[in-house]
Write a structure and sequence with these properties.
Mean pLDDT: 97
Helix content: 10-25%
Low-confidence stretches: none
Strand content: 25-35%
Structural class: alpha/beta
Strand order of the largest sheet: 2-5-8-15-18-20-21
Radius of gyration: 18 Å
Number of helices: 4
Order of helices and strands: HHHEEEEEEEEEEHEEEEEEEEEEE
Number of strands: 21
């Protein structure tokens, strides 16, 4: 099993693997280039985003700046928008549904490190390279969600369709569909109902 396969399967893997180093360098360069491209250069931005995140629906708009670890392990549904400072560490698959609104300073963090420092700290491989041990858990955001500003979603979390996460939330466990959830740690506050309609 390759280190890439281990990573995507949620097993301990070596992030200093040459293939993973190359893929991260590519995504970091594309993120930087995207961030440096003006909004008036819409066609160039679309082309760069297509290379950075190849699996995306129509009408996806990421305001920028963005930072992806890999990009190729993220999928974004149609009509999805992310505001400033969108960070996606997609060491495991990140799946974002259709019509998702993402506020500024949102982080989707799939990586996990061992709790024991004896397993977490850097070590020297047999070939002399310094590295560490990591693993990751996928993130799924259902369609029609709103992720407010400054939200952090941790690996292994699924956000149910149509839910809203309040500003500043740290999401460490699954959120069911159709609810408003907020807090640190994030918890369900109440269901979203017809009474919330503004029309």
């Amino acid at each position: 099993m390759t280190e890439r396969e281990k990573m995507l399967a949620g097993e301990l893997y070596d992030p200093s693997d040459p293939e993973l180093l190359r893929l991260r360098a590519q995504a970091h360069a594309l993120s930087q280039e995207y961030n440096g491209t003006l909004e008036t250069e819409a066609e160039r931005r679309r082309e760069l985003l297509g290379r950075l995140v190849p699996r995306q629906g129509e009408n996806v708009y990421l305001q920028g700046p963005v930072q992806f670890d890999y990009g190729i392990f993220t999928s974004i549904g149609k009509n999805t928008y992310a505001n400033f400072n969108f960070t996606v560490l997609d060491c495991c698959p990140v799946t974002i549904g259709d019509d998702v609104f993402i506020g500024p300073n949102v982080s989707l963090l799939t990586p996990v490190h061992p709790l024991r420092w004896q397993e977490r700290n850097l070590y020297r491989r047999a070939d002399g390279v310094m590295t560490d041990r990591e693993y990751a858990r996928p993130i799924v955001i259902g369609s029609n969600c709103w992720i407010s500003g400054n939200v952090t979603i941790c690996g292994g979390v699924t956000i149910g369709e149509g839910s809203v996460l309040g500003a500043g939330s740290v999401v460490t466990r699954d959120i069911p569909p159709g609810v408003f959830a907020a807090g640190v740690p994030c918890r369900v506050i109440r269901p979203i109902t017809e009474a919330d309609s503004l029309l």
